[in-house]
Design goal:
Elements: E1 5-6, E2 20-25, E3 28-34, E4 37-39, H1 43-48, E5 53-62, E6 65-72, E7 82-86, H2 87-91, H3 96-114, E8 126-127, E9 134-135, E10 142-143, E11 148-157, E12 160-166, E13 177-180, H4 187-199, E14 202-214, E15 219-230, E16 240-246, H5 260-271
Parallel strand pairs: 2-6, 11-15
Antiparallel strand pairs: 1-5, 2-3, 3-4, 3-7, 5-6, 8-9, 9-10, 11-12, 11-13, 12-16, 14-15
Length: 273
């Protein structure tokens, strides 16, 4: 698929044969393998698998294909051509537009799963009919999908970039400094704070680069470039266990192509040709 994923606000959209169904179970997404290609099953295929689910959410469109997100309520039998794949692994195998739709499905389904009861009075919630929201029939509290803003920053020092190894990263992977925005904090303050907390250096000339949703489970990543100002690398030892300056010729294992971190790193490479 070479078409852009487009979010369409239409909660009353009805599904039809051929529509794509982004189906999750226990945190993994259902994919259909056809030769060397990974595809999303359509409505007819979901019916053939007899997948049981409670809610379906219209996600938007990829080209002419309407996209829906569902979460299987019971384990189902997989035929030979189907498999359940963790979302991150899925992102390594498919087009960016399909990953964006899958990520939106994951965010909405996570919100659906965690907002079935009102946080104000404890009553069971209902899906709002005119927009993507939950409403409490007892106290009229309205709950929208939760989005958590986070920054990610490429700190540069001449022809070098700061890369860090997080304790939770697999395969000795290194990435950029990132962290969540605190309540009452502006984005540039978050960038300065996260860099200083995690590696002990001060930065300057912070400039926005690009943003992207990060659906693990509900972040919006806001990407920046910044320049080294002063200090020596001193990792926190808790979250970050090692960090260093790298030229484009000396990179360690870095994030996959579909991630915002990799797109920013690739931009650094382009700027240093």
């Amino acid at each position: 698929m070479n078409n852009k994923f487009k979010i369409v606000s239409n909660t009353s959209k009805k599904s039809k044969a051929g529509d794509l169904y982004f189906t999750f179970f226990n945190g993994s997404i259902l994919a259909k393998k056809e030769g060397n290609t990974i595809n999303i099953p359509n409505l007819d295929e979901i019916k053939e698998l007899n997948i049981q689910y409670e809610n379906e959410f219209f996600l938007g469109k990829i080209g002419t294909y309407a996209c829906f997100g569902i979460e299987a309520s019971l384990k189902f039998n997989l035929s030979e051509n189907y498999k359940l794949i963790p979302l991150y692994e899925f992102g390594e195998s498919i087009d960016e537009e399909v990953f964006l739709a899958a990520g939106r499905a994951n965010q909405i389904l996570n919100w659906d799963r965690t907002h079935r009861f009102c946080g104000k009075c404890g009553s069971k919630t209902e899906n709002k009919k005119d927009e993507l929201a939950k409403v409490c029939p007892s106290c009229n509290n309205v709950m929208y999908p939760v989005i958590c803003p986070a920054i990610i920053v490429a700190v540069t020092k001449g022809d070098k970039i700061l890369l860090a190894h997080n304790r939770g990263f697999k395969n000795n992977r290194y990435s950029l400094i990132a962290g969540f925005v605190e309540a009452g904090e502006d984005l540039k303050s978050t960038v300065k704070r996260e860099v200083f907390e995690e590696v002990g250096i001060k930065i300057k000339n912070i400039k926005f680069h690009m943003s992207s949703p990060w659906s693990f489970p509900n972040s919006l990543m806001i990407g920046f470039f910044a320049e080294y100002e002063s200090g020596e690398i001193n990792v926190d030892g808790n979250e970050i266990v090692h960090a260093d300056w790298f030229t484009k010729e000396s990179f360690p294992n870095i994030p996959q192509k579909f991630t915002l971190a990799r797109k920013i790193i690739d931009e650094f490479i382009e700027r240093n040709k």
